[in-house]
Design a protein that fits this description.
single chain; alpha/beta; six-stranded parallel sheet; 39% helix; globular
């Protein structure tokens, strides 16, 4: 490539297994939008197993492919979303769909979210093919995977360390090492550890912006004044958080701000109906919606946030500088608790652990104090929200390097 020629536009395939909730899809969407937004002509293709991918809007230049969905049980096991289809058949269908998409899209970079070999190893054929063809491979990891007692046996069972060392050119951690080092607990021989460390980059957290407002968007009347937003993310494991907040309002009529609860699309319908009945008895002090694919608008308006502390919600709390109470889950992973407690030590959020007791008065006291908490922006953490810029910069650099390598191969 001559000096006066423009850098080649990137073609990035993003694999997001999405077996549960919204976290992987929303992170992949933010990254894809940043890639095409910072590189004119760039294209991104998200391959996802999320059953609600069609309910989200993406930037121009981002396309999506939906894989046959699977579901995750509380004990950590998986099954096809369609119970009549064996899981092995669904995995085979997903693997074939990923390979077809990769062949048609012809990416110069494949960005894999969290699982080095993909769900149940479904990505291995694509990794083998991509490595043979010189396609750059990058593994993207959230800031926290799990605690060592759970992470180490899981990654050993999957052969994840070997896959990571064998295939990936770079490893991006979407966070900061001062909050957590997700690979530090993994047992590696010195040579493998040195290879992994040389490929490792901490990008910072992924800053979120308000999306383009959807035509005809409507919001609850409560959003017109000061309110507390309660969000359990996808909602599939958020019933305990919602119950605790409702119980607090039932026990304490003097909580100063009303609450708007976003149940999430995966909250069990019967549980949601039970919550709705209790909410109707609170005389307008709590309102509820099922789902908002543009929840950033509500987050930006809220006087404070109560959440479980998943990765994306944490990024939004930081990005929109919201005072927050985090109630992290600890099963089947301790990821949320590790992140929340590290953030609390830095003064970014307040944490309530269910294991310390779920008395309604305890939550009520936290809700009363929420408007007087310190905003996250008052705590100086260098590079805290630099993630999207760092990712876009590395994508451009890898695209240029890949273009040069292809030219050399053509000459030889």
């Amino acid at each position: 490539m001559r000096v006066d020629e423009p850098a080649p536009a990137s073609r990035v395939l993003i694999y997001s297994h999405d077996t549960f909730g919204l976290g992987h899809l929303r992170r992949s969407r933010a990254i894809a939008n940043a890639i095409v937004g910072g590189d004119r002509g760039a294209r991104a293709m998200i391959v996802s197993g999320s059953p609600v991918i069609d309910r989200f809007a993406f930037a121009a230049g981002v396309r999506t492919v939906r894989l046959p969905p699977v579901t995750k049980f509380p004990d950590g096991n998986y099954a096809s979303l369609d119970p009549a289809v064996p899981l092995a058949r669904t995995v085979a269908q997903r693997s074939a769909a990923i390979a077809r998409t990769c062949a048609a899209f012809q990416p110069d970079l494949i960005l894999v979210d969290k699982e080095p070999a993909g769900f149940q190893g479904e990505l291995m054929p694509v990794l083998d093919s991509a490595a043979a063809r010189g396609i750059r491979l990058v593994l993207g990891l959230r800031d926290v995977l799990d605690d060592a007692d759970r992470l180490v046996p899981e990654w050993e069972r999957k052969g994840a360390i070997e896959t990571m060392a064998r295939f990936y050119d770079e490893i991006w951690v979407y966070g900061l090492s001062r909050i957590h080092a997700p690979l530090a607990a993994l047992p590696m021989d010195p040579e493998t550890a040195a290879r992994i460390d040389a490929r490792l980059t901490y990008t910072g957290y992924l800053r979120r912006e308000l999306p383009d407002r959807r035509a005809g968007r409507e919001e609850p009347a409560m959003a017109d004044g000061p309110f507390i937003l309660v969000t359990p993310g996808g909602g599939g494991d958020g019933a305990a958080l919602i119950d605790w907040v409702i119980a607090a309002y039932e026990a304490d009529p003097g909580i100063p701000l009303p609450a708007l609860i976003a149940f999430g699309p995966f909250l069990d319908a019967a549980t949601r109906d039970g919550f709705a009945t209790r909410i109707r008895g609170l005389a307008g002090r709590i309102a509820a919606i099922t789902f908002d694919s543009e929840i950033e608008f509500l987050m930006r308006k809220a006087a404070g946030v109560v959440a479980m502390g998943g990765y994306n919600t944490f990024c939004e709390i930081l990005s929109f500088d919201r005072r927050a109470i985090l109630v992290p889950r600890t099963e089947p992973r301790r990821e949320q608790a590790i992140r929340a407690l590290a953030a609390e030590r830095l003064g970014l959020v307040r944490v309530l652990l269910e294991e310390d007791g779920r008395a309604p008065e305890r939550m009520a006291a936290a809700l009363r104090a929420l408007p007087d908490q310190t905003e996250p922006s008052r705590v100086l953490v260098p590079g805290l929200l630099d993630g999207l810029e760092a990712v876009a910069r590395r994508v451009r650099a890898l695209a240029r390097a890949g273009d040069g390598q292809q030219a050399l191969r053509a000459i030889s």
